[in-house]
Amino acid sequence: MKIIVQEGGVASLLKLLKDGASAEAQMGAATALYNLGTDQEKVKSIASEVSALSIVVKAIGKSLMRVQIVLVNLVARMAELDEGVREDLGRENVTRPLVTLLGMDIVVEEAKTPSSKPTSIHSLVQINKEVSKKKFHSTSSLSLYSDGSSRGGRKEREAESPDMKHMLKISCAGALLKLCREGKHKQSFR
């Protein structure tokens, strides 16, 4: 693994991730980067490449779901292993695609309640039942990355299995948790 870093292989992997002509090429590059980032020194080596974090963040937003999972796990690992890289990821606004992916397929419904009347428990139960029925029968979903021309577009996302979507959401939640943690010496909650 160390020889890949020493011989400039990280830049090639990032280029493949960015410009990969096929999903398999992107998956291979993402997996290799994930397998490289096993300690703080290697994470710093990956992050020190020109535009590395920007490339990873952009790829999270527009890759196929299986590539997104690997990249999100890479972000989580990098954030966990190096505080400086965690801050750099924040500057690259990595939270935006993570939150977007976490919220995919969430149906947005607004309950219509008269604002001038006080709301009783009975009316809240009725509203909840109506919203639940609409959610059950609704086929619309929320997707901020809905451009059909992108690799991770809505059509591809809808075709993915529920298990794959669930794995992606779990990975996004874990990455967000690791991104918001402070260094071990700063974690005292009083």
TrEMBL record:
The keyword Repeat applies. Residues 141-164 are annotated as: Disordered. The keyword rRNA-binding does not apply. ARM repeats lie at residues 8-51. Keywords: Repeat. InterPro entries: ARM-like (IPR011989), ARM-type_fold (IPR016024), Armadillo (IPR000225). It comes from the Eukaryota. Residues 153-164 have a biased composition (Basic and acidic residues). This is Uncharacterized protein. It comes from Heracleum sosnowskyi.
